[in-house]
Amino acid sequence: METSKEIRLAVLIDADNVPYSNVKGVMEEIAKYGTPTFKRIYGDWTKPTVSGWKNVLLENAITPIQQYSYTQGKNSSDSALIIDAMDILYSGKVDGFCIVSSDSDFTRLATRLREAGMKVFGIGQKKTPNPFIVACDKFIYMEIIPVVNEAEAETPAKTNTRRKSTKPATAAPTAVKPSVDKLNKETLKLIAKTINDLADENGWAFLGDIGNLLLKKQPNFDPRNYGFAKLTPLLKSLPQFEIDKRETDKSGIKLVYIRNKEI
To answer: Are 217 and 137 in contact (CB under 8 A)?
Structure first.
């Protein structure tokens, strides 16, 4: 799917469905698709369990929106997020939305925003119900976004004010390895059929077109779900597909074409 770095995004986060340790990685992921102009997160900030959010919100310049829990067992943030989304839509200040939640209650919101011509990106856990996933233009699983542990990290200012220690320096925080799924038969069939849908008379299809159509058919399709950074290495690892890199008029630039191997 074609996206622009200049696209203006409203990022709306459901705090009841997102661990605060994921937020930094999520914001870095969103930056790939556009520039966040609105960054809001919804939750009941009077609860003692949300104390860990403070530093995360300050570091990422996210505005917390207070929403009291009026009844037990209900996600009270949903209505506030939906109302704000519609207000932002009618303001005309954004080109798209990113809804960070695993809650299917946002399915109708995503559908309505797309009807208004907005790009809609969803980010949530793999438990997210399918109706919300397919209502988005693109859906990214939170499990494939690395989580960096910054709990022990110190800023240079703090380090300089402390007395020099004779203890050996500790290793820098490391990223948590994302979880990876195995390619199933349904996904392989989806890729093969997509290639056939776009193929020329010789069976070749342009890789960029394949990636775009795969997202339209299955918004949660992402090579990272299967341990590959890009679509090309994923297809290279599969014996049923053939790859051809073709020279262009521009030096050093090649176009990648794929076709199904004849069996």
So the answer is: no
